[in-house]
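Lab manual, section 2.4: Encoding a predicted structure.

Procedure: take the sequence of the chain (286 residues), apply the prediction step described in section 2.3, and record the output as structure tokens. A sample record is shown.
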Amino acid sequence: MVTRRRIIESTSGNTGLGLAVVAAERGYTFTAVVDHHAAVDKLRAMTALGAELVYVAQEGDEELATAAHEELAEKMAADSDNAYFTEQHNNPANGVGYHPVAREIDKALDGRIDELIGAVGTGGGLFGTGKVLRETVPGVRIVGVEPKGSIAFGPPAHDYYQSGTGTPAGATIGAMVDYGLLDEGIKVGDVEAFATARVVARRVGLLVGGSAGGVVYEALRRLAAQPPGTTTVALVNDGGEKYMDTVFDDDWMTARGLLDPQVESDVDELLATLRPAATEIPREHL
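Recorded output:
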């Protein structure tokens, strides 16, 4: 009997979804070590793709347990003869995978970019993109966004609900986080991040995830104060379709004190100011 190769990763969902696809295509097995802080829709999708889920916390415990599931994933791989721990927080391939994104941005904007903003979880997305973009656009500012409560940009540490981003207390900041490339580190709270995701869905018709909402919130806030002609690129690395049971569910939001109509109204007003309504179609064109 041939033993199938096995991938093991500690994940909040997004990386796990990608690895589940790879495993299915190549005939591997995939074990995702997770906690109940991850969005339920992500966990369901990984299971649908054939992944085995191993939990480090009891059902109903929504605490973010990054350190615990990284330790368990590493141990499981070490105890197996045919398993590989992809270790996304310290795997150089994480950042390298984003190098083409930098080239695409540079080509699309013909090098005219002033600022790059992205979420910092593992750091692969922002710093993998930023490293290559800085080579061709030396003056580009690189701005990282993490949830309030995350420790990559300093204390205080506390719980947060944004999924797939940040570094909680007790977890090790991964090797992908390149402070040498970082010009500024910003913290955005759950209320503001989720409010932005909800407003963007209603006003623009785009579903973005909670951590992406934090990035867009910071981009909108900065653009309002920048001179005309400034080009800012916000990396939106998380789709919102995985958060129907959380960010886009009023009951879930209310139960956790995250639903704030005033903040949503403020974000809506800011977005409306920066993105005026479409010009009315002339009568002769109707």
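Check your result against the sample. Confidence is low (pLDDT under 50) at residues 277-286.
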